[in-house]
Amino acid sequence: MKFLYKILLCTIIIMAAAFGISGYFFVNFVFESALEREVAQALDGSSILRFAFETAALNIPTKYNVLQDAAVRQIGARLESSGQNTGRCLRLSDEGRNSIYTSEGFSEDTALLQQIGPETKVWTIASHGDRYYIHTGIVVNALDRALYLETLEDVTEVFEERSMGFSVYRRVTLAMLACSGMVMLFICVWLTKPIRLLANATKRMAAGEYGYRAKRISNDELGQLTTDFNSMANVLEETIHELKEEVRAREDFIAAFAHELKTPLTAIIGYADMLRSRKLDEEKHFLSANYIYTEGKRLENMSFRLMDIIVTRREVLEVQPIEAKTLFEYLRGVFAENKEQKIRMSVQSGTVYGEPNLLKSVLVNLMDNACKASREGGMVKLSGKRMENGYAFEVRDYGVGIPEEELKKVTEAFYMVDKSRSRSRNGAGLGLALCVEILRLHGSELDIRSKVGEGTCVSFVISGHGPGAGGKGAGAEAADVEAAAAAGAEPGA
Ligand code: ATP
Ligand code: MG
């Protein structure tokens, strides 16, 4: 059953019970009051009759000063005829409680007669057929006799009024229930509207309309519930969007991975097949073997990089202070053999907090990219600067640059702006993806600015404070060091 009908049904049941009980008590109260009045009147009437009887008995001439039964009957008949139009009946009994005079239609029942005492008036309600009477009893002392006088007053009307009262009240109650039921129905529809709106929103969201929101139409608890529901829906929508993005990124990753595997494998299989199926001259034999070696190396390089990314994602960083100088010295060693580009290093002394091997890997990757993008004899600058809250590294080249629309994509795994150029330089498109992961662990991120034909500048800032330290910044104590190097070997060799 709908909530709306439940409220309606409960309200109608409560109203019916309230009307019914109050009506019953009201009609009964009116009846009791009327009956009380009738009883009082009947008792008064019986006292008056006693007095009339006693007076009449005194006036009847008697032989031995004893009231004869015949005289009693005569008086009884007279008293009965005097109250004919009131519908009153009476019975007169002697000392042995045997009837002397009984009106026509008077009850045969003598239970009340037995209860009459010398000084008491008794009464009861008696019914004969469908009529109701007040039966009273009293002692009458006439001359030397103590007789019993009983009366029957017809009070059927009072009982009929009660039945009529119940019947009228029933009809009024039904009419009121019908009217208030209609009003309650409208009130329930209005009260439960926010619930219906919420239910509708839930259904539509379950059907995939994640952007659908319930309209708030009240300022009560249901209104608050609607607002909370909508906030929850916002969070859910965002989470679903993020999950979808993640799934899409994974699918892209797998597709790119499969593609990157295919290219070197095709070359390896092709050259290996040539070597095993034909006898080649020495030069061709060497060339084929060299291709297999180079492509194999590329695969190995790719698998190492992938391993690095996976490991980095899982790693919990063990931060330690590193002198920036040591990082630059390491890079100078790595690129000492590079003769193709002029490498300039400008370094301010300072301390950074991080994992030395991971930071070295980031800098080598960025320098490697800068060298690969530069023409022969081009300049690559690596600089380190103390900042207020850390230490900034910057790698700048004056090479091919990256188109603006590609800037966001170059950090995705396997993404290469110029695939043939990158592959010819043994690139797998994983270097920047690895850098992003490492910097994320260090609470930092890459800032890449580039212009096609003018060059690229990649920078990032590493914290100068250890965990929980309120240090004074990156190694402000040391003097600046300028270093310059020019080398001619293959980058990253
Ligand atoms: P890997 O680093 O895995 O050996 P890669 O250098 O091609 O291969 P990334 O370092 O991830 O891969 O770089 C992604 C792509 O971004 C490169 O292929 C290149 O097209 C572009 N790119 C990166 N750095 C520069 C730069 N300094 N100048 C121009 N293009 C760059
Ligand atoms: Mg690279």
List the topology elements.
Layout lengths: L2 H57 L9 H14 L6 E5 L5 E4 L8 H5 L6 E7 L2 E12 L2 E10 L1 H36 L1 H14 L14 H57 L4 H33 L5 E4 H11 L7 E6 L3 E4 L1 H18 L5 E8 L3 E8 L21 H6 L6 H11 L5 E5 L3 E9 L17 E6 L7
Parallel strand pairs: 7-9
Antiparallel strand pairs: 1-2, 1-5, 3-4, 4-5, 6-8, 7-13, 9-10, 10-12, 11-12
Bound molecules: adenosine-5'-triphosphate and magnesium ion.
Can you describe this structure?
The chain has 493 residues and is of the alpha+beta class. The chain folds into three domains: 3-166, Beta-Lactamase (2-Layer Sandwich); 215-313, Helix Hairpins; 315-487, Histidine kinase-like ATPase, C-terminal domain (Heat Shock Protein 90), CATH 3.30.565. 53% of the residues lie in helices and 18% in strands. Helix 5 (193-206) runs parallel beside helix 6 (221-277). The longest helix has 57 residues, at 3-59. 24% of the residues are buried.
Content of β-strand: 15-25%
Any idea what the CATH superfamily of the largest domain is called?
A: Histidine kinase-like ATPase, C-terminal domain
N→C terminal distance: 78 Å
DSSP helix fraction: 40-55%
**CATH topology assignment of the largest domain:** Heat Shock Protein 90
Text of the CATH class of the largest domain: Alpha Beta
Bound molecules: adenosine-5'-triphosphate, magnesium ion
Instruction: Please provide the count of β strands.
Output: 13
Radius of gyration: 57 Å
Order of helices and strands: HHEEHEEEHHHHEHEEHEEHHEEE
Q: What number is the mean pLDDT?
A: 87
